[in-house]
Specification:
Distance between the termini: 40 Å
Helix content: 25-40%
Low-confidence stretches: none
Strand order of the largest sheet: 3-2-1-4-5-8-12
Shape: globular
Mean pLDDT: 94
Number of domains: 1
Oligomer: single chain
Length: 353
Amino acid sequence: MKIALISGSNGLIGSESVSFLADKMDLVIGIDNDQRAYFFGPEASTKWKRTEQEEKYANYKHYNVDIRNYAELETIFAQYGNDIAIVVHTAAQPSHDWAAKEPLTDFTINANGTLNFLELTRLHCPKAVFIFTSTNKVYGDTPNFLPLVELEKRWEIAESHPWYKEGIDETMSIDNSKHSIFGASKVAADVMVQEYGKYFGMHTAVFRGGCLTGPNHSGAQLHGFLSYLMKCAITGNGYTIFGYKGKQVRDNIHAWDLVNMFWNFYQAPRSGEVYNAGGGRFSNCSMIEAIEICEKITGNKMNYSYSDQNRSGDHIWYISDVSKFKAHYPGWEYKYDLEVTLEQIFNNMKNRV
């Protein structure tokens, strides 16, 4: 029997992993206790997704377990043991704004929770492939010191730095920068996932995501940029742009494209690898550009305001260079561009908000 074990299984990447792996594995185990509702309020709850998954996939089994609870997790790992072929660890506290309110909660979920999964994988299914969703926030605010030029609707890398033409690669330092509390807790988890691969020889991979997006996102003000933006475009609720003249740039990767990266790695795994995983030059936008696309899709004029105060440690310009992953897995390609992704988000959300 082949089993996929997925933490955060009702969230954006976790739920995409469930649907992607349901027809490839004999059993898909989901672990999710809807902490997202605690972080961001009932409107961000993922319970609707759990219900949908349990109805749609006969081979999906759900466990309502907190990832900080080692004993409860061990019961699950011990039950299935070496039948677990892949562990996709997506559960996290995902907001750098929220983390500053409860640093202990943030760290115990992001760092300790990840260590729980690593150690239990090592003890009960050491041959399993271990996938970890990290973040570009592990680079802290170092990207903000790159030479940028201001264009009409966005910031862009200066032509004097051609080695960043395709975006930021994995050689950028993660030291001596302002990460946010969230970024620091993810650094701890990120490095531990690498270490379990390099020290214990396990098949582990760190995927440092840009903006992860898609129609299954339960967007909230503090997390889920495109999803929350589209929600405001549909409802007419106010949206606030924080700093950088609204020209800050993010790359956006569809959840399916990211999970397809996981699948490619699973089929030819390595030990302790790190990959930047975002939309790259294929799918990116500034805040201003994203608003324009949302207005075009919805036919509504957005209700937004501007604050000169940027979020602490926030990136001005971040585009992922995915060249390393493409070199290792040349069969992988993007499937969903920015406009198609936003249209999917709109079609999925218009009946829910």
